[in-house]
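Task 17 of the worksheet. Students: predict the tertiary structure of the chain below and write it out as structure tokens. Keep your answer in the requested format; marks are given for formatting as well as content.
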Amino acid sequence: MDQPLTAKVPIPEGKVPPSLLSRLLGLARRPHPALLVGPSLGEDAAVIRLTDQTLIVTSDPITFRTRRPGTYAVHINANDIAAMGGQPIFFTLTLLLPPGATEDQAEAIVADAARAGDGLGAVLIGGHSEVSAAVRTAVVSVTMLGHLIGERPLRTADGRPGDAIVQVGPMGVEGTSILAAAHRRTLLQTLDPALVDRAERFLEDPGLSVVSPAGLAAAHLEVHAMHDPTEGGLATGLRELASASNTGLIVDEEKILLAPETQAVCGVLGVDPLGLISSGCLLFTVSEDQTGRALELLGRAGHAAACIGRLTGEAGVYLLRQAQGRVRELPVFAADELAQTEGGPRPD
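Model answer:
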């Protein structure tokens, strides 16, 4: 950082002091020609010039305890923009800190969020920060703005019977990282430490972002529907896609992309990876004759992708084809599988 961190002095409740706010805003001073008024002391909003672009806006908070809430918040919101067929361009950040939080903690979160945005081409343009007894851990809420890449939004609801379903990136990446960190000691009783280390680093590698593959698909393919599965995992994401499109689906279990680290962690903890939170995974549908082109495009760009099934004309019928051709209903998860690990993820 440009300035040395203040010692671990607690921030008083209420709006953060101007000296700290000035430093936090300084972390976001990335220029952009469309940004007429950016983040600065005394300004309560940003001003952005729009010409012929179509704006996409989304907002989602991170409320659970995690090592990098800034990165999480940026990526899950950028993914929502990308899955609509957009490119993230700007975001605001609201940071609520519990009493006793220190200035270096605040700076670390904002700097982490700004770096995550830089990696996606999204500029932090302002927000709000305060210390409040209403929260027990840092709450980071991002509002992300983006512009449409193609001529129309890629809605979850625009799938068509006969469409091929393409999965990009393995399922359960986010959940694997959370479980590996929360249950490390338990996992080390059974699994190789190197595997547990890799699983815990899934937040960074392969990472949570689907912005690049979604952008490629939106720009170069005739995508019908697009969706990023999050809470409830791949199974829930598939059901949401088919339900919104008023279709059915059949998916081949053996074709689903699943990292061996996820399979191992879930096996030890008794978790079904199909229902594990899956930020970092992308689903989209194309006409069956576009499947080969889609997989080639994504493969050339270094993105793992597979055609895992198709949408059908039997609305409300969601099937999973297993080994030896057995077919069963795609599982339903009333809650994310994280909740099955003794009340949810927490350090052992």
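Marker's comment: The first helix runs from residue 18 to 26. The mean pLDDT is 89.
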